[in-house]
Write a structure and sequence with these properties.
The protein is mainly β. The chain has a domain of 227 residues: Pectate Lyase C-like (3 Solenoid). The chain is 10% helix and 46% strand. It contains five helices and 36 strands. The strands form three sheets. It has a 22-stranded parallel β-sheet that branches. A hairpin with a 2-residue loop joins β8 and β9. The chain is globular and about 70 Å long. The chain starts with a strand and ends with a strand. GO terms for molecular function: polygalacturonase activity. It comes from Winmispira thermophila (strain ATCC 49972 / DSM 6192 / RI 19.B1). Belongs to the glycosyl hydrolase 28 family. Keywords: Glycosidase, Hydrolase.
Length: 462
């Protein structure tokens, strides 16, 4: 079955809402057992949409789908939000419990996130004390238990849980190809509890100051390929996650078997980031042939005591970085997202003394990074910080060339519990085990250009 959405009354001028036409087209295709929904060139204003199985959702080049900005139009659904299963606003474009779905065509899907960002900032900065939406009250009521939980980095919310632009949840054999996804209210695209997802030639676009607008987060999913995509966003470009703290350990689903190839990361807090929500684990990841331009951090792994989980068996090679603050960071003293209860035990989280190892102790092991060229680096040539009770284990860094910017820029390579700020700083490592450095070249950094301490079985071969 082939359905052109304009034949069912969709308005390509964008002056009149087209939600009913889109939903009718999707309903007919689902009843027929599958088909293609074609969105021709034009501007379409719609409410939240749920895609069905055996569907090709084709947004033609020259077409733009814009989502309405009224929070009460988005139903409350059960999902995972910043690593915790809870109730939140339904995604704007939702693929749930589906299989054999393709989203393609070269057009634009626009979340019109500006009003959401404004409300979020007004609330955080005290200009708004109460949200005038019944849906916010419903979410707060259902999530009362979350008010003291930790978060990934920005502080735990429990009521105004902004929707992602696109979420693929509990689905398999999903292809997202050739489209532009922009102006998300929250995360741009969220792949959750899904299998066999292929993302190719997609542009993820958000303003640099848009809050919590990660480009793509792969969350407790497996067999994911991300190729030839471009990221220019307001937070991390591409994240690998698997739940936070006890809730993530309860679910216990890792992100695994991920290939990231030929992508460009422009701006963003981090280029490719593991964590900090890794309670279910991240493993078997290959990153190759990617370019990072003006990101704060290039490759970043972040967690802390209490999070648990692991990052293991990661291979990264053939990477070019330009004008980043720091090319490589592994930080197991990540300080962001502390909940009210944890503030009382910050001294424990920040301790440089070894603590007992248990299920809450994160692990980073078997990381191989090679053929990295970073030019115009501003803050630090690299920063590795494990835990004294569980060092970063089995790291191999080879053909790693860093050329510092002549002026540099003061910045934190790692958001740790203690100061790390530096300008044109050298490569630093602490709490490593069985690490090997081959062909590491640092030019223009403050002395010492390379320093590893409080570690064991470390080999450097020039």
């Amino acid at each position: 079955m082939h359905v052109d959405v304009t034949t069912l009354g969709a308005d390509p001028t964008g002056l009149r809402e087209s939600t009913d036409a889109f939903r009718e087209a999707l309903s007919r295709i689902e009843a027929a057992g599958g088909g293609r929904l074609h969105v021709p060139p034009g501007d379409y204003l719609v409410g939240p949409l749920r895609l069905c199985s055996h569907l090709e959702f084709e947004v033609a080049r020259g077409a733009r789908i814009r989502f309405v900005q009224d929070p009460d139009r988005y139903p409350v659904v059960f999902t995972r939000w910043e690593g915790v299963e809870c109730h939140a606003y339904a995604p704007m474009l939702f693929v749930e419990g589906a299989e054999d779905v393709r989203i393609s065509g070269g057009g634009v899907i626009d979340g019109q996130g500006a009003s959401w960002w404004r409300m979020y900032r007004d609330y955080r900065e005290g200009r708004l004390t109460r949200f005038p939406f019944s849906s916010v009250e419903e979410i707060a009521r259902r999530n009362a238990h979350l008010s003291t939980k930790a978060s990934g980095g920005g502080g735990r919310e429990s009521h105004f849980l902004r929707p992602p632009l696109l979420q693929v949840k509990d689905s398999r054999r999903v292809v997202i190809e050739g489209i532009v996804l922009r102006n998300s209210a929250f995360w741009n695209t969220h792949i959750l509890y899904s299998d066999e997802v292929w993302i190719r030639g997609v542009s993820f676009e958000n303003p640099p100051d848009a809050p919590n607008t990660d480009g793509l987060n792969v969350d407790s999913s497996r067999n994911v390929r991300i190729e030839d995509c471009t990221f220019d966003v307001g937070d991390d470009c591409l994240g690998l996650k698997s739940g936070i703290d006890e809730d993530g350990r309860r679910v216990g689903r890792p992100t695994e078997h991920v290939v990231i190839r030929g992508c460009i990361m422009r701006r963003g807090h981090g280029g490719i980031v593991c964590g900090s929500e890794i309670a279910g684990g991240v493993r078997n990841v290959v990153v190759t042939g990617c370019i990072f331009q003006d990101t704060d951090r290039g490759i970043r792994i972040k967690s802390r005591r209490g999070r648990g989980g692991f990052v293991e068996n990661v291979m990264i090679h053939q990477i070019v970085m330009e004008r980043v603050l720091v090319p490589l960071v592994v930080n197991l003293y990540y300080r962001c997202g502390i909940d009210p209860g944890e503030e009382e035990i910050v001294s424990r989280l920040a301790s440089l003394l070894p603590l007992p190892v248990d299920e809450t102790t994160p692990a980073v092991r078997n990381i191989s990074i090679s053929q990295v060229l970073a030019t115009g680096v501003k803050s630090s040539a690299g920063f590795l910080l494990g835990l004294p009770e569980r060092p970063i284990e089995g790291l191999v860094l080879s053909d790693y060339r860093v050329f510092m910017d002549e002026e540099g820029q003061e910045g934190e390579p790692a958001m740790a519990f203690f100061p790390t700020a530096t300008r044109r700083g050298g490569f630093r490592g602490k709490y490593l085990k069985d690490a090997e450095f081959r062909g590491v070249r640092i030019e223009g950094a403050e002395e010492p250009a390379f320093l590893v301490e409080d570690s064991c079985s470390v080999r450097r071969l020039d």
